[in-house]
Amino acid sequence: MERTLIVREYFTDIDENDWVNFYSTVSQMTAGGSKVVIISRIENLARFGTAKAVHLNSLSQEEYSYLFKMLATDQKDHPKMVSVANDLAVVLGGSLITANMISDMLRRNHNVHFWLRILRRFERMVKNNFLKYGEHPKDIIEKEQPVDSTEFMTSYPTHACILVKPPRVERDDIPNYKKPSISFKEVIARSVAISGGDFEIATWESRISPYTKYVSSATALFHDKNGSTTTTRKRRSTS
């Protein structure tokens, strides 16, 4: 029996008994010297490790900006578009998922005015969240708190928040796979109208086979000028 390396990614904390059962099964099915590597943002999962946890820090702003420009632009792009990409890399706050999705949008639409609209929406969104909550939207989402998303609504309520749950991995070839109702790119482009309530959103999509997706359950809450909350259904934009 050969030694095996198992890489396990967790998006939520797990019960002690579940871990014991999993590890016991792995031990019985693999040879001595096999390893299990846990990948997660949840610090508490380090308790299951037999070695010191390795913390992967965020990319520096310079590294993140370089990565985003490589994903979004090419040598043929106008210098103005490269400048917009630089500004977006600052506004996005280091989110790799957002960088992947936004860069894909930009590559599909080489129009500097479109790029500028996306930049301005993110700038206003970040400003709104700092004013209301004192934090960048990326940090708010990671804490599983509602983030102000008014800038990405096709119609403007007084205040709109979206609560995004931790993502799960999905693939089109998985049995009983339920396709997300909307994608993060559609929300950013305002090509889908969200009227409130619960929905499934694809927050990240692989560009290569097997086309893995990160799918999150989300809830949109709209507050009108009277302070009441609406949770009506979403609809496709016809504009």
How are the elements arranged and paired?
Layout: E1 5-10, H1 16-29, E2 35-40, H2 61-72, H3 79-91, H4 96-107, H5 112-133, H6 137-142, E3 147-148, E4 159-164, E5 168-170, E6 182-183, H7 184-189, E7 192-193, E8 197-205, E9 213-223, E10 229-230, E11 235-236
Parallel strand pairs: 1-2, 6-8
Antiparallel strand pairs: 3-4, 4-9, 5-9, 7-11, 8-9, 9-10
Helix pairs in contact: 2-3, 2-4, 3-5
Explain how this protein is built:
The structure is a single chain. The chain is α+β, with helices and mostly antiparallel strands and 239 residues long. The longest helix is centred in the middle third of the chain and has 22 residues, at 112-133. The strands form three sheets. Strands 3, 4, 5, 6, 8, 9 and 10 form a seven-stranded mixed β-sheet that branches. It is globular, with a radius of gyration of 20 Å. It contains seven helices and eleven strands. It has helices at 16-29, 61-72, 79-91, 96-107, 112-133, 137-142, 184-189; strands at 5-10, 35-40, 147-148, 159-164, 168-170, 182-183, 192-193, 197-205, 213-223, 229-230, 235-236. Mean pLDDT is 82; it is low at 231-239. The chain has three domains: 5-48, no CATH class; 58-138, Helicase, Ruva Protein, domain 3 (Orthogonal Bundle); 149-239, no CATH class.
